[in-house]
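Quick one, probably user error.
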């Protein structure tokens, strides 16, 4: 049996009332994790101010496993020492403590955060038949994203974001990110050297240790231990969805393709739904790359247009369109200018080009539906998108009238980040050279 598969029972080392280093008086135990045990204590040298002592106490047997666990624990201390953020517990001290005839143990001391974890808050609400509202979750995202922006700028990925590791601080009602026991410093140079020197399978085991909570951590982290900045964004989105739905990730994830099916569990704005869905993409390349990018999009969710009006308008002017096309629309960046080439096309092509014009129209209304989100129609500036003005003038007029209506409504919403939506009409006589 491999070392990492062997477990040993942890004996209680510290009791309430014990004083460590002639300074820290233990009040009671707070928690017990895979690598550590935490205590609430009083700092006798700081007017009995409360603090948290984290004892390195892994449940593993075997030299390699213990060394790896201690490496993670000491790394946490080093990272906490460097991190200086008001929503991260401040590191105080790292020391060894030894009782009589017992092996010495390693302790980390940090600030105590008074408040409730978001997991406890959710549990309390579920008992009352309630969950977190969209406004509350949006506020949580806006308050946690700057923390992630900061730690990522310091080369640190938390790797274990969940409702249990976010505390709503009592003093100022701000979320505090705790438990950096699973952090990984992103050192690309070291990873490159390891992957170049040894086989890929072994390199992966050395480069990243697969840590993180199942369901909250992205697939590549759980399966291979590989993490990026957007790994934390994935976990944050998972936390948001759990708070919104009141269900655990395992109840919402399709294990066949790792896709989340949560949209039918709760009603939120189309914009927030798209934002969270993108953050939770099983494919890392489909996610947002940074907390800054997510913050900018979240900030744009401000001016609200009544959803029922937008849907009603779409129903009266836009024909049905396949779900696949809708999906493609949401995965593209918006053009600032859409060109519509007018050519004497035959009547047999009316349905085809009419469908393309429908995509343009629906793109405008989807933009209204998601307010001013920077995702609407695909870039069609280099494709042949025509209206049948040469064969059916009446049909062409109806199509262009709908495009103009979508343009007007979109610009009334502020366009794309303040830039007006423009429609360029060009006559090309159905000549490819003129079109070019």
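Nope, works fine. Designed sequence:
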């Amino acid at each position: 049996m491999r070392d990492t598969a062997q477990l040993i029972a942890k004996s209680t080392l510290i009791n309430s009332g014990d004083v460590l280093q002639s300074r820290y008086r233990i009040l009671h135990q707070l928690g017990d994790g895979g690598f550590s045990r935490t205590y609430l204590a009083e700092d006798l040298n700081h007017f009995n101010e409360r603090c948290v002592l984290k004892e390195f106490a892994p449940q593993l047997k075997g030299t390699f496993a213990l060394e790896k666990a201690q490496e993670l624990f000491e790394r946490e201390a080093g990272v906490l020492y460097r991190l200086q953020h008001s929503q991260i517990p401040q590191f105080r001290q790292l020391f060894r403590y030894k009782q009589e005839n017992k092996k010495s143990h390693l302790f980390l001391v940090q600030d105590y955060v008074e408040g409730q974890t978001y997991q406890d808050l959710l549990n309390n609400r579920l008992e009352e038949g309630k969950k977190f509202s969209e406004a509350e979750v949006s506020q949580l995202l806006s308050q946690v994203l700057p923390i992630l922006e900061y730690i990522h700028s310091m080369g640190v990925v938390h790797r274990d974001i969940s409702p249990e590791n976010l505390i709503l601080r009592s003093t100022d009602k701000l979320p505090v990110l705790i438990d950096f026991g699973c952090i990984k410093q992103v050192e690309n140079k070291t990873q490159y050297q390891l992957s170049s020197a040894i086989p890929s399978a072994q390199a992966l085991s050395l480069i990243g240790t697969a840590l993180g909570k199942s369901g909250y951590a992205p697939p590549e982290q759980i399966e291979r231990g590989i993490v990026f900045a957007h790994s934390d964004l994935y976990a944050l989105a998972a936390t948001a969805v759990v708070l919104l739905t009141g269900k655990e990730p395992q109840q919402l994830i399709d294990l066949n393709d790792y896709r989340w099916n949560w949209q039918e569990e709760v009603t939120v704005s189309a914009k927030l739904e798209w934002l969270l869905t993108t953050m939770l993409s099983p494919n890392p390349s489909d996610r947002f790359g940074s907390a800054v990018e997510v913050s900018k999009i979240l900030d744009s969710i401000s001016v609200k247009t009544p959803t029922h009006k937008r849907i009603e308008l779409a129903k009266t002017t836009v024909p049905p369109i396949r779900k696949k096309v809708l999906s493609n629309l949401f995965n593209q960046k918006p053009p600032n200018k859409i060109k519509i080439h007018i050519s004497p096309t035959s009547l047999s092509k009316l349905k085809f080009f009419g469908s393309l014009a429908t995509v343009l129209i629906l793109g405008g209304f989807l933009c209204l539906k998601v307010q001013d989100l920077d995702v609407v129609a695909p870039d069609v500036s280099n494709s042949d998108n025509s209206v049948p003005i040469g064969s059916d003038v009446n049909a062409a007029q109806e199509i262009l009238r709908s495009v103009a209506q979508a343009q007007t409504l979109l610009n009334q919403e502020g366009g794309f980040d303040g830039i007006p939506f423009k429609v360029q009409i060009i006559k090309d006589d159905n000549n490819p050279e003129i079109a070019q």
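The two ends are 68 Å apart (CA to CA).
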